[in-house]
Amino acid sequence: MNLDQIDIDGIVQSVLQQLQRRDDRPLVSAIKPVSQPKLKSAALIQSAVVTADLLAEKVGTNKSIRISPKAIITPAARDYLREKNITVESLDSATTQNQTVKSETTQNGWHGLVVSASETLNSCLQNLEKSSNGRWSQELSDSTSAAVKLARQEVARGNKRGYIIFTDKAATACCEVNRSEQVRGVVISRAADLPAIAEVKANVICLPASGLSFMEYRQIFHHLMTENTL
């Protein structure tokens, strides 16, 4: 075969077509995508009282929780955290203030001031918070006098319908709040005392922080809910 018999143009066209087909094929990257590390998330718990049941409901697969610096952690909840190896983080003051403002803006019902609380009362407060449909909110108070001062100021301003002070000095708290003309306080130490709320049109209720059974606390709260007090 001599050069005259070779189709030079045909060979060139064939080579060009092969090169074009190679250029049209998508390039396959050999670089493997780098997986981003998963950020550890913390379960946000805004309740003033942290119980074991609440942790079981809210924590899920998280290994840490974020709570208010003043939140009460019950003994059973501490055991739960220890067994599950869950760490506790504190909310910063700015976040806590924003949540408080939001809560006070959206809720205009009764507000609890927890000076002290037994394990039994803690459980009842947790149930009340779940079942009140936003009509109930609560916060911790450093002392009975501080709770009384706050209740008197806020009732006078009309920011809340009323306050319930939980303290072992319920009688003292009631005497102090009644020094204000705008406040009508009563002590409810048993279910038989409940009619006094309607009789004096109370806007501050003082409840003992201990000494009552779960059923007694539950009966009192149930009455307040059904009578539209809360």
Overview of this protein structure:
By secondary structure, the chain is an alpha/beta fold. Helices cover 44% and strands 17% of the residues. The chain contains 9 helices and 10 strands. The protein has helices at 8-24, 52-58, 75-84, 93-106, 119-131, 144-157, 170-177, 195-200, 214-226, and strands at residues 43-44, 49-50, 64-67, 72-73, 87-90, 110-114, 136-140, 162-167, 185-187, 204-208. The strands form 3 sheets. A 5-stranded parallel β-sheet has the order 7-6-8-10-9. Helix 2 crosses helix 3, helix 5 (119-131) packs parallel to helix 9 and helix 6 packs parallel to helix 7. It is elongated, with a radius of gyration of 33 Å. The model is unreliable at 26-31, 33-39 and 100-107 (pLDDT under 50).
Task: Give a quick precis of the structure.
By secondary structure, this protein is an alpha/beta fold. Helix content is 44%, strand content 17%.
Task: Please describe the topology of this protein.
Elements: H1 8-24, E1 43-44, E2 49-50, H2 52-58, E3 64-67, E4 72-73, H3 75-84, E5 87-90, H4 93-106, E6 110-114, H5 119-131, E7 136-140, H6 144-157, E8 162-167, H7 170-177, E9 185-187, H8 195-200, E10 204-208, H9 214-226
Parallel strand pairs: 1-3, 2-4, 3-5, 6-7, 6-8, 8-10, 9-10
Helix pairs in contact: 2-3, 5-9, 6-7
Mean pLDDT: 78
Structural class designation: alpha/beta
What is the general shape? elongated
Strand content: 15-25%
- List the strand order in the largest sheet: 7-6-8-10-9
Q: What is the count of structural domains?
A: 2
CATH architecture of the largest domain: 3-Layer(aba) Sandwich
Instruction: Name the poorly predicted regions.
Output: 26-31, 33-39, 100-107
C-alpha end-to-end distance: 108 Å
Q: Cα-atom Rg, whole angstroms?
A: 33 Å
- Total strands: the figure is 10
CATH class of the largest domain: Alpha Beta
- Write down the CATH topology of the largest domain: Ribose 5-phosphate Isomerase B, Chain: A
Portion of residues within helices: 40-55%
Counting H and I runs of at least 4 residues, what is the number of helices? 9
Order of helices and strands: HEEHEEHEHEHEHEHEHEH
* Major β-sheet profile: 5 strands, parallel
What is the CATH homologous superfamily assignment of the largest domain? Sugar-phosphate isomerase, RpiB/LacA/LacB
